[in-house]
Amino acid sequence: MRGRCRWGRSNAGASVTDLAVDDVLGALRARGREAYLGEPVTVTEHSLQAAMAAEADGAPAELVVAALLHDIGWLLHEGPRPHEERGAAYLERWFGPAVTEPIRLHVAAKRYLCTIDPDYRGRLSAESRRTLGRQGGLLDEEAREAFAAHPYAAHALRLRHYDDLAKVPGVDTPDLDHFAALVESVRAR
Fold first, then answer.
1. What are the residues whose beta carbons fall under 8 Å from the beta carbon of 44, sequence distance 6 or more?
2. How far apart are the C-alpha atoms of 68 and 100, rounded to whole Å?
3. Can you name the residues that pair with 58 across neighbouring β-strands?
């Protein structure tokens, strides 16, 4: 296999396994230096902080990977779907629902928490409070019940917590290579 992967890195001599990990992490490597939507960190810094929080929390490997990749949809710019849908759809080629469903649900988890816990909304960053309206605002009773009944709701709520913690400038985190083997092990399942 020779040539270039989707994100522009040479893949001469790379295995299919290496290419999958490179493609998955490639968006964060290539475009992750962009500012993260009004937050004081880049997309990659946010992603690494979220994964580090999941790892420190003892989360299952799939949830650590979901934390690392939860906002990849912002970097794809493929179609009009919301970032959580773009990201989950993109990642489905490599990962099962234990990774993709918490990603797909992490915005719904924010809406759910804002609906059931009035104090939660006040703890959100200013930018996250601002985007809440664009993301649909509070959930009605039917939507709350549907979210709570989803098999991956608990993991989506944990991912939301990691997301909320991951907006601190200057935090020392492991680099993407630290998570590459974990991404590969989860991808291979």
1. 28, 29, 32, 33, 176
2. 12
3. none
Instruction: Judge contact between 71 and 80, C-beta under 8 A.
Output: no
Tens digits of per-residue pLDDT, 111-140?
999 999 989 999 988 888 888 988 899 999
User: Closest Cα partner for 29 from 67, 65, 72, 84?
Assistant: 72
Instruction: State the Cα–Cα distance between residues 151 and 170, nearest whole angstrom.
Output: 35
- Confirm if 27 and 78 have CB atoms less than 8 A apart: no
The pLDDT tens digits for 22-63 are 878 888 888 777 766 677 888 899 999 999 999 999 999 999
In b/e form, how buried is each residue of 110-122, taking b as 16+ CB within 10 angstroms?
bbbbbbeeeeeee
1 C-beta neighbours (distance < 10 Å), count: 11
Q: Which of 8, 26, 14, 4 is nearest to 177 (CA)?
A: 26
Reference 45, options 165, 184, 188; nearest CA is: 165
Domains by residue range for the chain, with CATH: 16-187 (1.10.3210.10)
